[in-house]
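Hello,

Our lab assistant flagged a job as stuck in the queue for most of the afternoon. It eventually completed. Since we weren't sure the result was trustworthy after the delay, we are filing this so someone can double-check. Below is the sequence as submitted and the structure that was eventually returned. Let us know if re-running is recommended.
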Amino acid sequence: MVSAQVPPVTVGRAGSGPGEFLDPGSLAIAGDRLYVADVGNLRLQTLTLDGRLQRVARLPGVAVMGRVSIDARGGFLVPTIGLEGVLAQRYDSLGQPTGGFGTPLDSVPRMANPRLTKEQLIGGIVPPLFRNGVLAVAEPDGDVWLVLNGEGRLERFSPDGTRVLSVPLGAREMASVLREAVDSARATLDDAGGTY
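-- returned structure --
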């Protein structure tokens, strides 16, 4: 069997207009559509495979906090650091919220204080911002995986938001990650400004 070669297609360019991108964070191909999470412009752009713009949906402001995961229907999953009452929020392809996943482990202030965060790390405390930080991945069957970075745990949720699995990650690996974060905080503590 011989497979046909498909020539590469250039899609968009840098900018903020239709079909332009500022920090495209993730993409997915489903059927004859290309979905691009354009985090710099806070939008999800739907294009044909040859690059013609079909639709634009707004990404929520929290999308700048982490990787946006796009599902096979053009919906997307956004980590929220707990600001929406969940750890990750699912949206349909039009940008409407359709469900949340995970329970926040700590209260996160609306304004972050980088110096306080670094001092907490150096003092052996996992800051609330880190405890609620997740990598969220949408599965084709509607299930959602969350990697709870600060807790060292992997969780799986059914489409209705029910947690069906929780597995701790290796302690040795997590200790190494924490040590690296503490070393970085120590090295840059004097550079930390006020809130942002």
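-- support follow-up --
The delay was a queue issue, not a problem with the job. The result is valid. DSSP finds three helices and 14 strands in the chain. Helices lie at 114-122, 128-131, 171-188.
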